[in-house]
Amino acid sequence: MDLLNYAFMQRALLAAVLVGITAPAVGIYLVQRRQALMGDGIGHVAMTGVGLGFLLSWSPVWMATLVSVIGAVAMELIRWYGKTRGDIALAMLFYGGMAGGVMFINLAPTGSNANLMSYLFGSLSTVSESDVTAICALAAFVVLVTLGLRRQLFAVSQDEEFARVTGLPVRALNLLTAVTAAVTVTVAMRVVGLLLVSALMVVPVAAAQQLSRSFAATFAIAVAIGVTVTIGGTVTSYYQDVPPGATIVLLTIAAFVALTVLAAPLARRRARATAAAHPAGDPAECVIPASREADGKVGV
Amino acid sequence: MSEPVISLRGVRAELGSRPVLRGIDLTVNSGEVVALLGANGSGKSTAIRTIIGQVPVSDGEIELFGAPRRRFRDWARVGYVPQRTTAAGGVPATVTEIVSSGRLSRARFGVLRKADHEAVRRALELVGMADRAKDSVNALSGGQHQRVLIARALAAEPELLIMDEPMAGVDLASQEVLAHTLRQQVAAGTTVLLVLHELGPLEPLIDRAVVLRDGCVQHDGPPPKAVGQHALPGHDHVHPHAAHDAEPIRTGLLS
Fold first, then answer.
1. Residue B240 forms contact with A (CB below 8 Å)
2. Compositionally biased, Basic and acidic residues: which spans (chain B) (predicted)?
3. Where do the structural domains in chain A lie, given as residue ranges?
4. What ipTM describes this predicted complex?
5. What is the pLDDT of residues A164-204, one digit of tens each?
6. Which of B52, B94, B136 sits opposite A164 (nearest CB)?
7. CATH of A2-196, one of 3.10.105.10, 1.10.3470.10, 2.40.50.140, 3.40.50.790
């Protein structure tokens, strides 16, 4: 493994592994809430932070963290208050964030479109010492929240109305989820880029679902897939000179397809086992009741 | 007269700008089983959702166990069964995982101890789902979903059960199980407030019926007797529901 002799590759691999852990760990709650595209929206908003970082000569990573946290909180507030026009407000937030980023980076004396590209699509080999420090601190926060509060976040993401009646601080937990997602976006920004961040939050979870029956197993498998593809993509990009961000995302999608194909016979066997274990079962039901749970929710 | 567990006085609520509750008075005393009846759109579900704080109240007072609802914190005393057709979310979850979240009101910092796991198991036994504890909820029928949601409410061992149409879309076998579970709870002294579309198999349990119409209380007293065709034994009251209400296909990716 000669690639480990290079300091830049050590940093790249460390950053990649941390992204492989944190992105699915947050993504699972977003998928559970059916807000799979929220990561994408935060990624757009984070662009403004990167642009501001260049313009004010501050660290783009910390500036992007700050702006995307503000953006994520704004999205959560829009979800509460803007029930009918919520999607329009969110769209404006996304596009405004993107446009702001392009504008600020062009106004910045040191900024150029090349800088922009490295944040849009990731630039793993240029991850610096200070980037690694920031990524480690942010990743620790994400792991602490997503594992430490897993029961609370599970309850709120599963059924917000019910969670309220268990006395959980639903709004605070929703805000925390949004902030954690925003932090994850900036952790992943240098690795896969802002435009591809959401893929690592969503696709490993979707792939894990093909195999799992429980939330805990989905969580574990999704993180395992995340770590595997981020390491795999980073190593591949070292030997083949391909962009690591795109390689990682394509590998994740390949994992999803492979698991879907493999899981089909497994699902059939499980269905047969269930039918055998519960021969009486329920009578065939013809009444399909209407769903009202989606009322008042603004999908992101 | 026993103390009121739920008390609504002159409660008004709007959804958007449309008044849905126009001054409701409702009292549920300890140990009572009260059914909230009324047509679609009469405000039954909204009334329930003001009690749990999901819908804001524009006027009037709500008290739970004698405390103003805004200051009420003792949620472990309340079990809630929301109106759902599915217990599933966007990610697979087992029956136990779903029911365990009902125990969070009694768990400190979200840590479930041995006694909590036992309470979850007991709740599953009460609804006859203990043998499906490790199955994914995605593999269950509509009636079994409802049983899981009720087990989730029972996991906290509540003194008050609030249920929003627990019998909607439930097959006959599960209706029997639910009626039996509820009988046990009532016998143990649990207070129950439930929204029903029709009295159905729960009729013998119900002490009092409150009928809502256009956001006002129209009747508060003994449950109304079914008349005409509805009174025939074995009458199965099924309404066609509008197709646009049906659960959309969700991939979890684009919603």
1. no
2. 233-248
3. 2-196
4. 0.83
5. 999 899 999 999 999 999 999 988 888 888 888 899 999 99
6. B52
7. 1.10.3470.10
